[in-house]
Structure formats: structure tokens, C-alpha cells
Amino acid sequence: METRKVQQTGGSTYIISLPKQWAVNAGIQAGSRVAINNQPDGSLNITALERSSQPKKMKMDISNQRGAALVRNLIAAYVAGYDIIELKSSRILAEQKKVIRDVCHKLIGPEIIEETSKSVLIQDLLNPEEVSIKKSIRRMFLISNSMLKDAISSLKNAEKDLALDVMLRDDEVDRLFLLISKQFRSLFRGTRLADMRETSVDEYHDFRVVATSLERIADHAQRIASVAKRLDAPVPEDLMTSLEEASTESRIIVENGIEALYGADVKLANKVLNEMGHFKTKIDTLNASFLKLDNMEMAIGLGSVVDSIERTADYGANIAETAINMAIATKAGDN
Question: What are the DSSP calls for 306-333, one per residue?
Fold first, then answer.
């Protein structure tokens, strides 16, 4: 940590010098303008208004990279915030090019702008200043919520096509989650984001935590849909009714958690957390009912569904806890 001595000039103005390395990295020179924002914890956020236009580049040798390993490395480079990624090899295989295209398709921003037998050039065309983390979180919630509804509907009505559609929608939630992860990391490099004037660094961290919960909720909706796609026999009506009720209750927990988050509603968030005990009792009763099934495949499948419903509610409770933390922190910052 560097320290600076506060000096006074003109009788009423306090000044400090900026760390040179930070200024160089931020593209700040004499005469440059910076934005200064008060944070809830009393600190100041200083951001360059006119950043250097030099893109962040990296080169990656993918000669020995295949399949999942190549996917992970490409996603890591994206989340790390590289604007241009140059992939090189003595010969890029068709299999590798398919992986590269698939990854670019699943991410928001990256496009292949140049391609040869020995190299692929990827450029991120998204301007992070144009994307609001709050809107991305809201979009993640809406998609995952609809996935949960449709996953249970596909299970009830044996709609395998709807189940497949739910599973495909998980990709969109993943795209938003990775974008938020990238934005969160870029925040610490001084990148200006769309809503940073109204969102503190602490709040960006909390929204990143919420994004993780929503990404997990979408995964569990996909898991329920996979069971619906796999089962051949219809679910007994009485069990299906109980599953629908439990699923609806878990979705309401998530919905109330999100409402408490955006409304800074501590009372609603505490209501969500206080009702979790009653919900857990219902889940235990539902699990016990599967022991009466003769169809072992269905018993195992429905057990997986109930586990996902329960975990969805747990993630909703996590969101409610984050809502309380954010609301209390904001109030403390206003005092």
C-alpha cells in the first residue's frame, strides 16, 4: 500500500499526488480528467475518463490443447479481460476450430475476426461500459425462473421437447454469468462500467455472489429437465401435485430474495429466511413418500428432482442474506 501526504493549495483545496504506475496503466497524463465517486464506506473511487485505447492482448499456443482443456483456457482468457486473443499452432485441427467456434458462440462479445490453418484471432467486441450488472442479474433471474417453471411442467406432462428446451436455455444463463465474472475482474483494473456511479465496489462483489446463486439455480432447473427427458413412465398424480407445490414454494423464495435485493427490503429478506424451516419439513415429507414407489428408476429420478428443488430454495435464501448485507451496508454508509 502506498501512502500520500495531503497538501493544501489556494487556502481551501486539498491535493494529493497519484501513484505513477497506476496513472500509466490507466492512460493518465498531465491534463487528463478523472471521475471521483464517494463510496458508502467513506473511500473514494478514482477512474480515468479518457483511458488508453490500447487493447489488452494475449497469445496462446494450443498445439497440445483439446476438448475441455481448450474450453477452460479460452473461458479463462475471456474472464481475465483480454480484448484480443491470438491462438496459434503449427496446424490447428478441425476439432480445435469447432471448440473455438462453440466457445465464442457461448460467450457475450468474442468474435472470430481472422482464421488460417495456423492461427485464429478472436476479438471481444463488447464495450463493458454499456452493460449494467443489475440488468444482467435481472436477466439471469428471469431466465432461471422460467426454466424452473418449464422443467416441472415438462416432468408433469412428459414433454420431452420442452425439457430439451430448458436444458438449452442454461447456456444463456452461463453466458451472462461469465460476462458478470469478467466485469467484476475488470473493475479492479480501473475499467469504467455502466452503473458504477450508483453501484459501489462492495455492491459489485455482492451482485457477483448473487450471480453465482442464480447460475446454480439454472443448473438445477436443467437437472430437473434431464430427469423429465429420461423418465418414460408418468409421475403418479399425488406425488406430482406435491412436487409442483414444493417447486412453486422454492421459486417464491428466490423471487422474494431478488425482490428484497433490489428493494433493499430487510423485512422481506428476513421473512424468506424465517420460512426456510417450514419448507425443509415439507421436503423431508416429500422424500419419504418416494419410498413407497415400486419403480426404482422413478424413485431415484424424483429424489434428484426434490434435491434440486431444495437446493434452489437454499440459493434463494443465500440471495436473501446478501440482500440484508447490502441493505445494512448501505444504511451504514449513509450515516
Answer: HHHHHHHHHHHHHHHHHHHHHHHHHHHH
Q: Rounded distance, CA 104 to CA 153, Å?
A: 32
Give the span between the Cα atoms of 326 and 305, in whole angstroms: 32
Which pTM does this prediction carry?
A: 0.81
DSSP 8-state symbol, 116 = -
First to last CA, the chain: 27
The set of cell numbers assigned to 307 is 434435491
Express each pLDDT in 86-105 by its tens digit: 999 999 999 999 999 999 99
Decide: 204 and 127 in contact? Cβ < 8 Å: no
Instruction: Say how many C-beta atoms besides its own lie within 10 A of residue 311's C-beta.
Output: 16
User: Would you list the DSSP string of 1-40?
Assistant: ------EEETTTEEE-PPPHHHHHHTT--TT--EEEEE-T
**Locus of grid cell 421437447:** 161
Alpha-helical (H) ranges within 94-236 are 94-106, 133-157, 160-187, 201-230
